[in-house]
Protein: HTH-type transcriptional regulator DmlR
Organism: Vibrio ruber
Amino acid sequence: MNNINWDDLKYFLALYEAGKVNTAAHQLNVNYATVSRRIDRLEDALKLKLFNRTGDGFLPTIEGKLLYERTISLRDNINNLSESLSPDTLFNQNIKISMVPFLAEQLVIEKLQHLHTRFPELRFEMDTSSRNVNIAKQEADIALRMELPETGESICKKLGEVEFVLSGTDDWIERLRNHEPVNIITYTAELGHLPECQYLIDRFGTKSIKIQTDTVAAQRKAAEHGYGIALLPKIALRSSPLSTVKPEIAITREVWLLTTKKTMSSTAKKLVMEELVKIFHTELQGES
C-alpha cells in the first residue's frame, strides 16, 4: 500500500462508476490513455487485477469491488474535510443536474438564477439527454425524473405534478371543440410509451399523426405553425400564442427529485436541492 499513488484512486473511482474508459476520461477531463495508464499502475502497485476488460467496458473484479467499497468512503471524507476547512471551496463546486429538456428550458435555468446570484461560485452542468443517468454511480448529483424509479438506492422526493393540455392554433382548437377530425403532433416511436403520447393515439388514432418529434419544444413549435394539436405541459406554454383545452380526463405526470446520501452531505449541493424543491412547489402549485 505504501507504493500507491493516491491520485490513481481518483481514476479508479471514476472508471468503476462510469464502466467505460471514454466516459471516465471525459469526466476527469483527460484522454483515454491517461485513464488506462493510471489503472495499470494501480493494479501493478497493488498486485491485483481490479477490472476485467470486455467488449462492453471495464467490469470490476471481486478485488475491484472490495477496493471501491473502501475507497469511496475515503473520497467522501476528503471532500467533506476540504469543504469544512476551506470556506472558499464551500460553494465553488460543480453541480450536475439531469432532467428532461422542457424542465430545464421552462423552469430550472431561469429560476436557479436567483440562487446563482447569491452564490456566484456555483457551477451548473445540466444534462438533458434522453437516457436516465445512474445516480448511484454518480453520473449526476441530482436527477429530476418524470416517474419514480422502481428500484435503486436513491433518495427520492416528489416535487409535484405537471399538467398537460391540448394545444393548437385557434382553427385547430375550434375543430377539436366541434368534434371534427384533427391532426396530431406527438413523440417519435421510441417515446411512444409515454402517457401523453398514448392518450393522443388512443383518442385520435395513428392516422392522425402528422409530426413526430422527441422534444416538447419542437412539438410546441409545430403546433404554433399550424400542424395540428399537441398535448403539452402547461408550464411550457406561458409565452405561447397557442390556445388550449383540457383533456376530458386529467393528464398529469409526477416530477421526482433523486439524489444520494453523499450528495446530501455537500452543503452546496444540498442548497441547490432545497432551491429546486422551492421552485417546483411554487411553480407547479401555480399551475393547478
About this structure: The domain at 6-85 is CATH 1.10.10.10 (Arc Repressor Mutant, subunit A). The longest strand covers residues 155-168.
